[in-house]
Amino acid sequence: MAGFRFLTATWGLRVLWRSHHIAEAEILTQTSKVPSNKAKSAMTQGLVFQRAFSDRSIFRNERRPTEFDKKILLWTGRFKKKEDIPPLLSIEVLKAAQNQLRIRICYIMIALTLLGCVAMVIFGKQAAKRGDTLLKRNAEKKAKWRDEGQLEQELSAGKTE
Questions:
Q1: pTM for this entry
Q2: Which of 34, 85, 111, 132 is 20–30 Å from 149 (CA)?
Q3: Contacts of 70 (CB under 8 A, 6+ apart)
Q4: Localized where (predicted)?
């Protein structure tokens, strides 16, 4: 395993590259006028490898931001004006802005939940001081339904007679 290098590209492919073949190819090309097949294959592997990994723009994962993405970038403070946003942005910048916004929304929801809990405690204590309980409310509601039911029975009985 000492002769292998594992290089991971951004698209998730693992490239196995034997470094000693490239070094051997360089030595063979320097010592002889006509390189062997082994040296040629090692050189082409090395050239493909160098071409693939020397230009980092291949790995840049950019996309055009949508209008909603632009709003997110403005809300999170990444850019001051809509005109400042470039036409192509890396996904990392967009994901970071979305995560910041998601965290802010979570903080707002936590604050609103705590505010709602405090409000319910205050309203509950005020209702307890007035003597207004759920038992009383339910008893009044059921008495009202009973009275309405009796009135309907009397009216239906009066119509049949």
A1: 0.49
A2: 132
A3: 82, 85
A4: Membrane
